What we know:
single chain, alpha/beta, Quinone Oxidoreductase, Chain A, domain 1, Rossmann fold, 2 domains, 6-stranded parallel β-sheet, 26% strand
Amino acid sequence: MARTSEAIVIRAYGGAEVLVAETVPVPDPEPGQILIRQEAVSVNFHDVYVRSGAYKTLALPGIPGLEAVGVIEEVGEGVTDLTVGQRVAYIDKSYGAYAGARVLDAALAAPVPDGVEPGVATAWFLKGLTAQALVDEVEPVRAGMIVLAQAAAGGVGQLVARMASLRGATVIGTVGSPEKAAVAKAAGCDHVILYREEDVAARVAEITGGTGVNVAFDAVGKDSFEGSLASLASLGHLVHYGQASGPIPPFDLSRLGAKSAKVSRPFLWPYIQPRAKLLSASESLFAAMARGDLPLSLGGRYPLAQAAAAHAALEAREAGPFVLDC
C-alpha cells in the first residue's frame, strides 16, 4: 500500500483560510534522502508571506513550511551519518515542512539531542542559528564590547542579547513598550531603551559616556537604521540583518568615513554551508539549549490541521513563537 500523510496544501494565495489539510502521497527516499515522521513544525512570518503571495517562492499547489523536527523512519542509499530512529531538525528553503511525514535531502538534517524538546528545537532552530552566526561570525562578540540589539524582545533579538551577554558584552536593547522591556531585561539586556519615547542614539551616548557601541545588530531596517548608525563607536559595525519596518533607503557610503565604520547585510545560509558547518553550528546551539542558557519559551502549540489558527495568532501579533504538532 502506498504511504500517505496529512499535509497542509496551499492551492491559491490568500488569508489563513487557504491553509487546508489534505492527504498526500509520501514517496520512498531516493539516494541521499531520508524519510522522517515529523513531530513539530515551526510557524514563521516567512510562511505568512508565502501563503499570502507576498513571496511567490512556492509553486502552487504546494506545501509551505521551512523548518521542522522529526524522527527518521527510512534512509536512502548512500546516507551514512544518519540512522533510523534518530531525531533531526532541518531548514529547507524548498518548503514542504507542513506535513506529518516527508522525504528530505539528508544533507539538510542535523541531529537533535534527547535533552531538547522537539517543539522548542524547531521553534528556535532558525532563530538560534541566525543569532549564533551574528555574534560569533558576522561580528564576533567578546568580553568588554558594548552591543546594541534593536528589537531586543523579538525572537532573534532576545537570542542576540542573551548570547552577547554570555560572551561578556554589555548589552543595550531597544523595545517598543514597558512589557517588552521586561522581556529584553530577562533576555540579558543591561540597559533598555523605549524607542517610541526616547531618542536611541542620544540614550546610547548617555549610557556609554559618549563612546557609542562596538556593534549594532539591527533587524528593523528603515525605522531604526539612522539611530543604529548614529550609535556606533569609532570602528563600529552596523549589522543590518532584517527589515521588519521596510528596506533602508539608499545612503552615501562616505558617511561611514567619519568613524571608519562599516555596514554589512548578512544572510544565514552561507554560515551553515557546507554540511560540516551546519552540524557544528547545530551542535553548539542545541548544547546551549540543553544547558538552559537561552530564553526559549513557546507562545502556543496547534495541531497540524489547525495551521490557519496558528497563522491568525501570528498575524495578530500574539506572543510567539508558535509550532504545529504533527
